[in-house]
């Protein structure tokens, strides 16, 4: 898939664990893990907004488009 997630990068920049983010935004660890691994098929804008607020970033910092070669 040409869209990759950089959630792990943003977590590291904020010195935050996935568990801590899960508690702060009230999203299950399972759903965040799916997003972090790049296996998510969709994400709600409201969820993306909560994550961005907590990590002090933009959606473009979390989601990246990498075109096929």
H/E series, N to C? EHHHHHE
| CATH architectural name | Orthogonal Bundle
Number of beta strands? 2
The unreliable regions are none
Assembly type: single chain
The percentage of residues in β strands lies in 5-15%
How are strands sequenced across the largest beta sheet?
1-2
In brief:
This protein has 69 residues and is mainly alpha-helical.
Q: Could you please describe the fold and organization of this structure?
A:
The protein has 69 residues and is mainly alpha-helical. It contains 5 helices and 2 strands, in the order E-H-H-H-H-H-E. It has a two-stranded antiparallel ribbon. It starts with a strand and ends with a strand.
Task: Please describe the structure with a list of short key phrases separated by commas or semicolons.
57% helix; two-stranded antiparallel sheet; 434 Repressor (Amino-terminal Domain); mainly alpha; 5 helices; 9% strand; 69 residues
List the helices and strands and how they pair.
Blueprint: E1 3-5, H1 7-13, H2 18-25, H3 29-37, H4 45-55, H5 59-62, E2 63-65
Antiparallel strand pairs: 1-2
